[in-house]
């Protein structure tokens, strides 16, 4: 019931919220004609409220999912310097017009981690956006240092700081500190509790050092190599029923969608080889010789576009048809990078099989 509630809630809330936001944006951009200045103010208010609500729903869902044990850890190998440059790009819009400099320190030694990059990125984005909210002038500095087999990420700011009395409390849900900037900034008081829970999921912890008037340093310390957690659902075992058909590599991070594809391929000339990340896909491709690939474009925190164009640029792989099944509509980009077919989710069994057979020249 809990998981049904969560998935309904995410669908029932997020979808209408995103259409409210998209429509409000259209109005503000005058796509449907001029607005009076009073109307513009009202539409901007609708937009801001919808954005606040969407943020609240996202955070609540994330927290509830963690509590229900529904969050999977998806470790991948990644380079911290690359993560920093992605974050720099993502957070640039928050800096517009600010008198604050956002600095990413290049790690002193190359840092290659094996952890859930998307979750680490979520924690750091939260720290950095808080730091930017509560710093009027000066800088926000992001760094990473290797300490034995741990990596400590620190986000240091020259902002208003936090009184010691509140330094524990702000990691509790819905707590905010009364200060002169609080009224001006958006927020729900759920970001830091979420960071704490995410860090614990990754086998690490968060900490804070701060002094009022001098600034704050929020840190997250994680193992260089994240261990698979106990109690996590086991990865998909090969099923006897997958049989010995032609291997089709399915790259999809959602467990239930993988199950669905696998059932689509049962009793057909094909057999599912499942990968939940690009890293797993690489391992699987090395082990099996897939006759086709089904690729999800929204793998968490991973660049499936780049992977697609690499596969299509490789002499050994380019002949293998790649079918994209995705939630994002970017058909043209997919084809220009070499995809052989493109579908929006959800895809029907007949559609998928027909396409696979055509791609593999089976009648
Ligand atoms: P939100 O930012 O949505 O209010 P958080 O849980 O992320 O929720 O933060 C809780 C509160 O902690 C903030 O509202 C703010 O009062 C305080 N806080 C967080 N980061 C900083 C910071 N870098 N400097 C000063 N205060 C901060």
Give a written overview of the molecule:
The chain has 363 residues and is of the alpha/beta class. The protein has 10 helices and 12 strands. A 5-stranded mixed sheet has the order 2-4-5-7-6, covered by helices on one side. A 5-stranded parallel sheet has the order 9-8-10-11-12. Helix 9 (331-336) links the parallel strand 11 (322-326) and strand 12 (341-344). The chain starts with a helix and ends with a helix. The structure holds adenosine-5'-diphosphate. Residues 126, 130-131, 134, 157, 159-160, 162, 170, 176-177, 182, 187-192, 216 line the site of adenosine-5'-diphosphate (ADP).
| Terminal CA distance | 43 Å
Low-confidence stretches: 230-241
The rough form would be described as: globular
Small-molecule binders: adenosine-5'-diphosphate
The succession of helices and strands, N to C, reads HHEHEEHEEHEEEHEHEHEHEH
Report the strand count.
12
Rg, Cα atoms, Å: 23 Å
- How many helix segments? 10
Give the amount of beta strand, in percent: 15-25%
Q: Provide the helix percentage.
A: 40-55%
CATH homologous superfamily title of the largest domain: Histidine kinase-like ATPase, C-terminal domain
- In terms of quaternary structure, what is this? single chain
**Major beta sheet summary:** 5 strands, mixed
What is the CATH fold-level name of the largest domain? Heat Shock Protein 90
Domains (count): 3
| Class inferred from helices and paired strands | alpha/beta
Reading side by side through the largest sheet, how are the strands ordered? 2-4-5-7-6
Q: What integer is the average pLDDT?
A: 85
